[in-house]
Amino acid sequence: MSIAIETRYSSHPEDFKKYQTTEIREKFLLEQIFVPNQITGVYTMEDRLIVGGINPVDRPVTLEPVDQLKAEYFLERRELGIINVGAPASITVDGEDFSLSHKEALYIGKGVREVIFHPSKEGEALIYFNSAPAHAAYPTKKVSQDDAEVVTLGSLENSNHRTIYKLLVNSVVQTCQLQMGMTELKPGSVWNTMPAHTHDRRMEAYFYFDLAEGNTISHYLGQPDETRHIWMKNHQAVLSPVWSIHSGAGTSNYTFIWGMAGENLDYGDMDVVAPTDLK
């Protein structure tokens, strides 16, 4: 079997305050997203999101059902969002082929029985994915950066000049609860999601990439008045419970993918925390 999904349980914010470095990393950090010829990931009880990566090297990799789902096939009761972070990739969805260039996305709806990820002829295929429970079946749709809703925010003076590509959001593609997008920081900028925020209506996961070798990112999490941090490397992901901020700063610029699942599809639904109120 070429799929390995680990289960992680929810954490209470009061318990989180007592975690040491090792516990924080074990519960929230996904250190190895890509394993050759395998689908790897974490099934988190935070809104039951599955976060992971797919790395077909010399043979196709099929999305198989896992024990956590107790389903006949993976997408029997789920939807899937993928973003290509490697070489141009090909995905077969119930017999229909889709080609994804670097940083293009694909939404696959509930009820799709077969998804096959093929090795790339142009380099290493690295496909990042999020999957959430779904109540309805919506069509498969490819989304390029040209199709995305694009917003540029911040400034170089504040070290957070960035472009946000809203790829799998309800203004671009119909989904049940899954939202995904990508934020690129300009050279000279390092801060993401600042001012920080929380949203009790949905959890979030971040995946960091495009980070130059030898650099690192300090990702911040926890309640606004009781924050902690995790030092992260390129091609790693982190889980953010509904009570936690999710923000970071790198030793150079980078790109990250944000994915959300939960109560609503309102991208702007957030409770902003002023930087001076963080502790």
UniProtKB/TrEMBL annotation:
Its cofactor is Zn(2+). It comes from the Bacteria. Zn(2+) binds at H197, H199, E204, H246. GO terms for molecular function: 4-deoxy-L-threo-5-hexosulose-uronate ketol-isomerase activity. It catalyses: 5-dehydro-4-deoxy-D-glucuronate = 3-deoxy-D-glycero-2,5-hexodiulosonate. HAMAP family: KduI. This is 4-deoxy-L-threo-5-hexosulose-uronate ketol-isomerase. The lineage of its organism: Bacteria, Pseudomonadati, Bacteroidota, Cytophagia, Cytophagales.
